[in-house]
Amino acid sequence: MPSIAVVGAGQAGIVLSAALLRAGWRVSLCSDRTPEELLAGRGRPTACLFGDQVEYEAELGLDFWPEASRMRRIHLDLCTGDRDAAFAVDAPLRKPALAVDQRLKFSRGLRELGARGASVTVGVVTEAGLEELAATHDLVVVTAGTGAGPLFELDPVRCVHTEPQRRLFMINVHGYDLTARPEHREGVFSFLPGTVEVFWVPFHDRDVGESRSVVLEAAPGGRADRFCGVTSADEGLAVLKEVVDELLPHESAFLRPARPTSPVTWIKGEVLPVVRRPVGVLPSGRHVLGLGDAVVLNDPLTGQGANNATRMARFFAEELAAFDGPYTADWLTSRFDEWWERGRHANEFTNRMLAPMTAAQKELILAASRHPGIAEQLWEGFNDPSSLSPWFFEAPAAREFLARCDVGRLDVLRYRLAVAARVVGQKLVGPRPVRRPAGGRAAT
């Protein structure tokens, strides 16, 4: 029976351990916290899983929340600098998505894997600890930070950015007004290009269950970049409401009555997207494999973190289960390079969305606002980013794709004129004022 030590009980670690236990491996799972500590911790990233990844967790017996709401469609509003929604894209997902509080997932997952036969240890894994694990197991996989310092070198060829591209704020809320915006019964994205993207995700929260996880991505130094000084959930939500009132007022009525799900379910910060080499070498000369965020870290703009971790864990579980070893550094690097041929599309999707939209991408999204079939194919990119290649990334391929969908150049021009007429009409009418009663809260 081959043996593996998995360092980190997050998304990649839980999924990889479950898959290899099922395949008959002896699994040692190392967590820096107990299940009770994981459950009692601060709020964690939203981590919405899309269709294929939701199904894979269920296949592994990790679907413990049948009561959690599934996201079955996405509504995207593209807004202008005058606070108007220029047009919307609305279509179903091909398979439901699911966002469950990671405190629940990781706490339950750690207990479950122990019950299935994994050897669970709790504590920070130091360099000496990695050496011991490497000496006593056929393979060590690191899926999280350790006390051993940087294990995996940056890959300069696969890294694109040298600094964070967005300032981030996330908060879980309840008490919102669904009657004001029925679109929020499903997933809603609000984009003001060049300024802010806001994602309103149906979420199963540890404390209140049904809720919404709101993820805001602000252009550094822009009009929505106001969260650096936030020190509490209440303060962060107040700033969020101000940003929405000023930049996305069509969402104000929905958000106005909302409250944080708890004082600790909020996060602020920024992410530097990086890709690292997949194999790290210990002082003894033994090697370890990196998976998940330990080696591929993306900005959360396209929600690929937990999805990428799941895809990577699934790929390596299948490769390891089909191979008798030895699991040499060259073999592991070769497998990672094979995975990267498909996995790189998640990075490309995220990097392209972080950049200003190209003319071809604007045409695609505009066409999607008129053709639900095109919108559905766009949304599939969140589940499988490789499905967007090459038509979302290359202008000639984009135009060929639209032609196959019976959308010609004159159609795109007609759509543009319709949007321009709508925007001009909104300007003539003027923006709907947002009244603020005493205390600074917006009111209608």
What brief labels describe this structure?
single chain, 444 residues, alpha/beta, FAD/NAD(P)-binding domain, D-Amino Acid Oxidase, Chain A, domain 2, 3 domains, eight-stranded mixed sheet, six-stranded mixed sheet, 13 helices, globular, disordered C terminus, StyA_sbd, Styrene monooxygenase/indole monooxygenase family protein, monooxygenase, FAD/NAD-bd_sf, oxidoreductase
Topology:
Elements: E1 3-7, H1 11-22, E2 26-31, H2 35-40, H3 51-59, E3 70-79, E4 85-98, H4 102-116, E5 119-122, H5 127-136, E6 139-142, E7 167-174, E8 187-192, E9 196-205, E10 209-218, H6 233-247, H7 252-255, E11 259-260, E12 266-269, E13 274-275, E14 279-281, E15 287-290, E16 296-297, H8 305-321, H9 329-354, H10 359-368, H11 372-383, H12 395-404, H13 409-429
Parallel strand pairs: 1-2, 1-6, 2-5, 3-8, 6-15
Antiparallel strand pairs: 3-4, 7-10, 7-11, 7-12, 8-9, 9-10, 13-16, 14-15
Helix pairs in contact: 1-4, 1-8, 8-9, 10-11, 10-12
GO molecular function: monooxygenase activity
Pfam family, one: Smoa_sbd
Domain Styrene monooxygenase StyA putative substrate binding: 149-252
Describe the structure in brief.
The chain has 444 residues and is an alpha/beta fold. The protein has helices at residues 11-22, 35-40, 51-59, 102-116, 127-136, 233-247, 252-255, 305-321, 329-354, 359-368, 372-383, 395-404, 409-429, and strands spanning 3-7, 26-31, 70-79, 85-98, 119-122, 139-142, 167-174, 187-192, 196-205, 209-218, 259-260, 266-269, 274-275, 279-281, 287-290, 296-297.
